[in-house]
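Incident log, structure service

09:12 report received: a user says their structure output differs between two submissions of the same chain.
09:20 pulled the input from the user's history:
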Amino acid sequence: MLLDDPAIEGREPVPAQMLGNKTNDCQAVTLPTTEDAEQLFRESLDRLLEVNKWKETSEKPLAAFQLSDAKGSPVDRKAAPGDYIRIRLPGPGNPAGGGFDWVVIEDIIEQLNIRHNAVSVTMRVRPAPKPASARRQISHFFRRYATSSFMVELQGRTVKACVFGRNEVPNTEVKGWLTILRNLIVSVTAMLGFSHFQWKSLVNGILGIRK
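09:34 re-ran on a clean worker, output below:
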């Protein structure tokens, strides 16, 4: 099981904020008993790693997500480090990514905080080129500095789900003025609220909250 791997202890799941925009979208649920909380934590972790189901997990999805292997081929399983996520956003697709935006799963990190009686699992992703593409330019509306860290945490009787965005800078380091314009529009839209709407819907769904 993922939580039993001691090799992943001690790594920093959320990078320091150095430039650009940052976001924090969290939701928490407190259960009647620790047993109930542990059960919800396990269910929430499953929903976090089932990337292909994020659209149905989110109550009001704005994007579609497809887990892919290192060659860009769709796969139907739980996410793992080194996998890619293919993202289809509303509006014009990304020409550099075959119509999609792409991120790579850099790491899946467990942290155990004995002092606060808490355990968390965080999946950190970063903009990436389209897998197996001869053109290695970043196929995403944010530059390679940006990360999104998807976390599920158990602390006592409380389960929390979060998405932390860091170092979000529009990706204008691409070829073609149409792609530059598209990335500017999408990134600014995301920073003005699109990403909050998407991620709040996702964290609610990960916790099983339906409003």
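09:41 both user submissions now match this output. Likely a transient worker issue. Closing.
09:42 reviewer note: The chain has a mean pLDDT of 90. Residues 177-206 form the longest helix (30 residues).
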